[in-house]
Amino acid sequence: MLCQRCQQRPASVQFTKIVNGQKSVQHLCEQCAREQGNFFAAPMQALDFNHLLSGLLNMESSPGYAPVQVQARCSNCGMTYQQFTKVGRLGCPTCYESFAARLEPLLKRIQNGTEHIGKIPIHAGKQVQLRKNLERLRQQLKQAVAFEHFEEAARLRDEIRSLEQQLESNRG
């Protein structure tokens, strides 16, 4: 796509402007983009994932950030938190423990939680799903018995037996 302003160079910058709910998009080359306004104080750089991640990791500039005392280096690989922010990758599993005070708020910002649940492998998915349902039903059965909801408990017991039979038939 050519620059919409000069019609000579390839467009490498896209400006999207929304005014009073009206959206306008303009595709410009670097030179026309610089001429149009003070959008670029430094030369343009290609988008780099590590650079983007290091911007997210730079929490000191975030509002409400309270400095946290963290271990200066990972006891296993020797990586510092500063190196991690530049590289965008931790050096070893021990880094997670060494930098836990800073990683926890970061992980909450990036992925809405700090616990990895994981994915179920395709070849074992049905078995895993059955076992999870079985565990969930057993918990519900315990609660039903504790609250003396015996009709519900009997229904859950029958469902558990059915799932156990499915698991056995899938194994054999």
Write a short abstract of this structure.
The protein has helices at 30-36, 49-57, 81-87, 93-98, 100-111, 125-146, 150-171; strands at 13-19, 22-28. The chain is mainly alpha-helical.
Task: Characterize the structure shown.
This protein has a two-stranded antiparallel ribbon. 7% of the residues are buried. It is mostly helical and 172 residues long. The chain contains seven helices and two strands. Helix 2 packs antiparallel against helix 3 (81-87) and helix 6 (125-146) runs antiparallel to helix 7. Residues 40-44 and 61-66 have low confidence and may be disordered. The longest helix is centred in the C-terminal third of the chain and has 22 residues, at 125-146. The radius of gyration is 27 Å and the shape is elongated. The chain starts with 12 loop residues before the first strand and ends with a helix.
How many DSSP helices? 7
In this structure, how is the largest beta sheet organized?
2 strands, antiparallel
Helix content: 40-55%
Structural class: mainly alpha
Kindly provide the radius of gyration, computed on alpha-carbon positions and rounded to a whole number of angstroms. Answer: 27 Å
Q: Whole-number average pLDDT?
A: 78
Unreliable stretches: 40-44, 61-66
Order of helices and strands: EEHHHHHHH
- Tell me the strand order in the biggest sheet: 1-2
Q: Approximately how much beta-strand content do the residues carry?
A: 5-15%
Describe the global form.
elongated
Count of β-strands: 2
Task: Report how far apart the termini are.
Answer: 60 Å
